[in-house]
Structures are given as C-alpha cells and as structure tokens.
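Students often ask why we bother encoding 3D structure as a string. The short answer is that it lets us treat folding as translation between two languages. Here is a chain of 755 residues written in the first language.
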Amino acid sequence: MSIKDIVNRDLVTLTNCDQEPIHIPGKIQPHGFLMGLTNNWTIDYCTDNISIFIDISHAQALGNKFETIFGTAAQEQIFNYIHSDTAQDVFPLEIVLLDKRFQVTIHKSDDIYVLEAEIQFDKQILADVYTQTIQFVAQMNSTKSLKDLCALVAAGTREITGYDRVMIYRFDEQYNGEVYAESCRKDLEPFLGLHYPHTDIPVQARELYIKNELRLIVDINYQAVPIYTVDDKADKNLDLSLSILRSTSPIHVQYLKNMGVGATLTISLIHHGRLWGLIACHHYSQKNISPAVRLAAKLQGQFITSQIDIRESNDENSNAKSSVEALENLMALDLPLIEDSLKTIVKMPELLKLCNSVGVSIVFRNKIYKNGLTPVDDQIKGFIEQIESKNYGEFFITRKIKDHFPELENCSDFAGVIYHSLGNSNHIIWFRAETISEINWAGDPEKSIVKDEKGLHPRNSFNIWKQIVKGQSSIWRQYEINSAAKFAHALQKNLMMILLSEEEERYRLQSEVLRETNSELENINWISTHDLQEPLRKIQMITSKLLSEKKSDPQHPDLNPLERVSNSASRMRELLQDILKYTRIKNTREAAEIVDLNEIYAAVVDEISESILEKNAVIECEKLPEVNAIGFLMRQLFLNIIQNSLKYAAAERTPVIRITASQEPVIVKHLSNKYCNWVRFSDNGIGFEQQYSDSIFKVFTRLHTQQHYSGSGIGLALCKKIMQSLGGAIYAEGVEGEGACITIYFPCDPADTLI
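And here it is in the second language, the structure alphabet:
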C-alpha cells in the first residue's frame, strides 16, 4: 500500500495572499494527533506524530479498520458518541486508546469523520472554571453599556484562561478592527483603542472564524505535523475548517511572532450571522488550556453576542429618547394649512434634535426654507439636481458626500446628509458638518503585508501610526434615520394638505363667483322674461291692429313687413319662454318621487293632439315603467321630444313615433355597469348625421335653418338638463334621411350620478 502526505506547498504571493487556502493546510499543530475515518471505519488519514502519543506509527494505522488497531470497545464508544444527543462541539469524548487516556473531538468533513485527540487534562480544573463563571455572570448584571460588558468579559476571560493579554476586538463595516476592551498584565503596553486594518484578517480567515468559533495556537514556534493518507486518488485532501488542531498560515504565524506573542486563543463573536468581533487572547510564552477552560472562554463570547442588541440599545437609549421626544413635539404641532407654516416648522429646534443634525432645509415650490448650519441655496439646489440625475430615489443618506458626488467635494459646509423626497419637486434635507477625527493604527495600515529581499512577510512594526480623517461626518444612528423618515412622511402629508386646502380655497372663491354670476344671470333672466315681454306684447298688439286694418287691401305695401314684424315678435316671446324654462331647472333630485310615465305620456298626447292630427302622425307606445322623477319635468321632457319628432318629420312619409321601454332595471355597460330603467323614442323623420349626436343637446344649437324649421334650439338642451338634474342621462342616435332615436336613462338608486 502506498501512502503520501497532503501538505499544501503552494507559494503565497502578494497577488494571492488574500486567497491562501488556509482551510486545507495538510498539517496540524503537534499538541495532539489526528485521524480521518471513512464511513466503513477505515483509517484514511493519520498524522505523522501519532507514534508520540501511542505505540503505533501512521503507516501502521493507514488503510486498516479502526477496531483492528484500537479494539471493538473503543469503536463502539466512538459510534455511540457520534450518534448521541451530546453537544459534540462542547463536550469532548473521554476515551482510552491503547492504554492512554485522551480527550477526543469529532467532526465530519465531507464524508470523513475527523478525530482529534489530546492528552486528557486534570478534571480539577473544571470545578475552578465553574466557580469563576458563576461569579462572572453575577457581575455581568451590574453592567449597563456594551463597553462596560466587554471590559468585564476581557477581565473575566483573562482570569479564567490565564493569558497575559485579552482583547475584545470589534469590526467596523469594512472589517477594520478596533481594540474595544482590554485586560493585560500591568507591565505590558496597552493596545486599547488601537485600530487594525481589514487586511490583518483576510476574507478567508473571517469565513473560517464564522465556521469555527474557537481557534487555539499552543506554541507559536511549533513545527507543523504533516497529515498522511492512502495514495488511492489524485489531489486528495482534507478540509480542516472545523479542526481544533489545524495548522496556521505561515504569514499569520510570522505576524504573531513580530508582535512577540508565544500562544493565542481566539473566540469568534458572531452577531446576526456576521463576524462582529473577536476575543483575542495573547500569551508571551507557550500555553495550552483544557477543553473545559476553552468552553468557559467560549461562553464569555456568547455572553457578549447575546447582549449586543440590548447593550447597544441601552447605550443609545438616552439619545434615542431625546429624538423621540423631539419627533412627538413636532407631530403635535397644530399649525394652519398654509405655506407660511413652513417658516414656523423649520425654525423649531426639535427639527434638528430629532436626528442630531446641525442644519435642515425644506424645499417647497422651489422656495428654500432653512435653519442652522446649511449650505447656500445654490449648493442645496445643486445637490438636489445631482440626487435626481443619479436616480437615488426618494431617500438618500451618507456621512461622506464626496464618495457619491465628487463634484461637491469642495462644498465644505456639509459632509453628511439625510435626504427625503416629498413628491412634486419638494424635499427635506438634514445636514451634518465635517468631523475631523484621529485614528491610532497599530502600524501603517497600508503595509500589513510587506515584500523585501527576504520574501513575503507581515509588517514587523506595531508602533502607533496616526491617521487624520477628513471629509466625513459622524455616523447617522438608526434611531436618527427612523425619526427623520417618520417626520418626512408626516411633512409630505402636511404639504399635500396645504395644497389641497389652497385648491379648496380656489374652488370656494370660484363657487362664490359662479353663485354671483348665476344670480346676475337670474336677474337678467327676470328682466328678459318680464320686462322684455311687455314691449313685445305692445309690438304684437300694434302690429295686430295695423294688420287688421290693412287686410282689407291685400296689395297694400305695408302688409308683408307688418306680418314679418308680428312673426318675429312671436318667435322672440317663444325664445324668452324657453330660456325661462331652461334656467329654472336646478338640482331638483331631492324633490324626486315615484312617477308613472304612462300617465305622463297620456297627458302629453292629449295636450298636443291637434298637432298630431295636423301631421297625421302615428304614435305607438308600449307600457312604460314607474321612475324616480319629478312630474312636471317629465311632462316637459316628453313634450319636447315628441314635438321635436313631429317638427322634423319627413315630408314624403307618414310620421311614425315609437316609444319603447325596459320593463325591469337592466345593466347599462356604457354607464359604468349601473342598473337603470330606460325609455326610447324612435321616429322615421329626417334624422341627422351621428357626428352631431352630442351637439344637438347644446343650447341654441340648430342643424337646420330657421326658414325651414322654426324653434329656439333650446328644446333638446332642456331635455338634457332635466335628465342631469335627476341624475340620469340622455343619448341620441341618428341616420340622415331615415330617422332619429333618443334614449333616456333613469338610475334605480336616486343617489347615483350617471354623467
């Protein structure tokens, strides 16, 4: 049987160091040994150092069944451990292998069970750890802020583990780290407050910290132990992402050596699935700790992550409370719905307090209202133009304006903004001034990886390197963002109410003008129907007297002019009477009642019976419905429509008028699917072209000359106004030379409006 090691010998360069395959180093640290078992219990992987711990070499173990080497009892013990409910990542398996006692951790890597064995530690340590943990929990409840809790965890972890230095390491959005809390020996230089660039912990390392929350290096000067496997396929490897003994990247080892560190313990702080930070424990000589101590240290990390949301909320509670109070005061304002109210709103100090800004501007109808430290108007307009041109939407926030708008970099009046569009080219913007800050880095962040004549290595200088940061404001907190959004939404509704109020006022003024105009028209109508009719009567009386005198002489030259004057006066009186009828029809829907249209029809036919006989007309009428209407208006409507058909009868044929109706309410699609009763008047008269179907209902509109057909041109307009006043509708259809059809619709519900 052939065996081979799986040591990864790929060279790390400046171009691939951030992609170094640290999860498959092919080697481990020497304070324990490793075996990899297949599903059928064949030992497929084994480290070179197994012979140091038990009397067997890796070559003797590889390819054999586990029970052949270690016995059936040990195999059953491991099998039961794997398939039990025991939290295997918390409690290691205590087992005897070839007369030696070990603590074994087991995890699965693809289809291989990875067994990592270390010499069993003294159990007395567990009791001490338990006591210290209980004390820590009691102390934890006395802290309020997240920073206080982290300081307590740093001190507690150092007491439990015995490391020389324990740091709570917190990441920002770009994974640059800050030493947020620290506990160390008094003779050591403190690192508290120092920042470390994101390149110190590359992407693939951060991913492993999420997968495996605990990382231990017992001796920084260790000699890595290779892993061997049965040489049965090419590119065979073993993923050690979850391994306790996994060997560390040589660059990271050198990094720690440059810091003078001898041993480390690293615990991941994972919050909402993201690497929030680390508990980094450093010792300046080699150091190993038992699984019990590792577990206690891991619990310290979980104390932090379980409290992050609560403690951060406590930290921000007082400021958030002030913001909420400011928002409530603004929302409680009872200001008139006029544009001048914006002058009051923008001057309210609460408008700045709700998101802790230094200035605010409201843009309404291209007019800028502002307060506090704000850019000049041209800069505000320029910023809005840039926002709209880049399609950032209705909301935009930044603490570093030049990152998004380089052209505004020279605008030193502001660096941070919260912007909300209020619709209709209206906007609100909160501003924050530039905050110049000083960051202390542990060495130059641009030189985390260095290449010189000796090759590639991490920086060896961790002296404080100061960086001055300009061009950005302080961070907008979530409660500030939320308060700004709530007020912007309320302000948008307020602006809409101002616009609606102004529109309502315009309508009110227009209504007053219309009422005055209508009143004037009614006065004019009174004059036209009363005062003008008196002189017309006198004209008719005089012409009638003169005509009676002149009729004895048919050839008298004044006879024809007098007849024309008499006819004109008659038409004038008829026109004035029609105008009076038209203007008297108002909104009479409230006075409507059930009307039997059959009675209306009978009365109208009786009234115009002489005209019907004169025209020799035939009127056919089926049973008509009862409708919600006003009797005298229905009489006027029927009278005008039937007289219109008689007037425009064709000379070459007997006039026939047919009146049909719906017997029950029906759905009328072109009236928005409303239920209606309808009555239709059809005739065989001269008709009209369909293009005039709307214009025939307009006042004084005539399709034929006065010489051919007499009348005022108000009859059908009067019909339309009657139907409008009842909430109904009227439509006309015609074919020139064949006849016309007029349909009227009555809504079943008097509250409906059909037109």
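Translate back mentally: Confidence is low (pLDDT under 50) at residues 454-459, 704-712. Keep this in mind for the problem set.
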